[in-house]
């Protein structure tokens, strides 16, 4: 992880020892990654002008970009990026200064912008654009560009939100085992 993890203004990422981080990633600055999470190839996570927090058992898949918004006079806290527990972020997603609750699935290629709050148990469909400052209500599927609240999640989809995270914990453990 020598070239993968770096400091910014003297602040280094804090990464639990159980986390898998692919060697092709770049994780910089005020980034904290909790237990049993994983960060897959070509992910960039820049906690340079605000903080990034990734909860337990969450996975950030290939080619995703995680960034934040600087604090300013108009927005004294800026927009940090907060990702809860058991979150699956699909391939090539862009998460910028938003807050994701627990048990979220962000479909491949989705973009979630500044000030968005995603409550627990939400499915964001592939390619969805979530414009700034929206709130996504728990228990629903959101799709489209711009996003629209499509329908309530069914029982199988609700169960899959947690199972997807579990699947990636198993996979990251296999990668860590092979590396040793």
What does this structure look like?
With 180 residues, this protein is mainly beta. The protein has a single domain (5-179), classed as Hexapeptide repeat proteins (UDP N-Acetylglucosamine Acyltransferase, domain 1, 3 Solenoid), CATH 2.160.10.10. The protein is 14% helix and 36% strand. It contains one helix and 20 strands. It has one helix at 155-179; strands at residues 5-6, 14-15, 20-21, 26-33, 38-39, 44-54, 59-60, 65-67, 81-83, 88-89, 94-96, 99-100, 104-106, 111-112, 117-118, 122-124, 129-130, 135-136, 140-143, 148-152. The strands form two sheets. Strands 1, 2, 4, 6, 8, 9, 11, 12, 14, 15, 17 and 18 form a twelve-stranded parallel β-sheet that branches. Strand 19 and strand 20 (148-152) form a beta hairpin. The model has no long low-confidence stretch (mean pLDDT 97).
Break the fold down into its secondary structure elements and pairings.
Elements: E1 5-6, E2 14-15, E3 20-21, E4 26-33, E5 38-39, E6 44-54, E7 59-60, E8 65-67, E9 81-83, E10 88-89, E11 94-96, E12 99-100, E13 104-106, E14 111-112, E15 117-118, E16 122-124, E17 129-130, E18 135-136, E19 140-143, E20 148-152, H1 155-179
Parallel strand pairs: 1-4, 2-4, 3-5, 4-6, 5-7, 6-8, 6-9, 7-10, 8-11, 9-12, 10-13, 11-14, 12-15, 13-16, 14-17, 15-18, 16-19
Antiparallel strand pairs: 19-20
InterPro entries: Hexapep, LbH_gamma_CA-like, Transf_Hexapept/Carb_Anhydrase, Trimer_LpxA-like_sf
Protein name: Gamma carbonic anhydrase family protein
Pfam family, one: Hexapep_2
């Amino acid at each position: 992880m020598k070239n993968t993890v770096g400091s910014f203004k003297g602040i280094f990422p804090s990464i639990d020892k159980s986390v898998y981080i692919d060697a092709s990633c770049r994780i910089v600055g005020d980034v904290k990654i909790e237990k049993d999470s994983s960060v897959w190839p070509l992910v960039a996570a820049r906690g340079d002008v605000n903080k990034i927090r990734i909860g337990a058992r969450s996975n950030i898949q290939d080619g995703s970009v995680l960034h934040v918004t600087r604090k300013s006079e108009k927005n004294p806290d800026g927009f940090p990026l907060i990702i809860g527990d058991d979150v699956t972020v699909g391939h090539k997603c862009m998460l910028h200064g938003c807050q994701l609750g627990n048990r979220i699935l962000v479909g491949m290629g989705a973009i979630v912008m500044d000030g968005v709050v995603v409550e627990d148990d939400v499915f964001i469909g592939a390619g969805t654009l979530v414009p700034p400052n929206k709130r996504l209500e728990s228990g629903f599927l959101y799709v489209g560009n711009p996003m629209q609240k499509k329908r309530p999640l069914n029982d199988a989809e609700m169960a899959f939100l947690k199972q997807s995270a579990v699947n990636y914990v198993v996979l990251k453990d296999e990668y860590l085992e092979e590396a040793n």
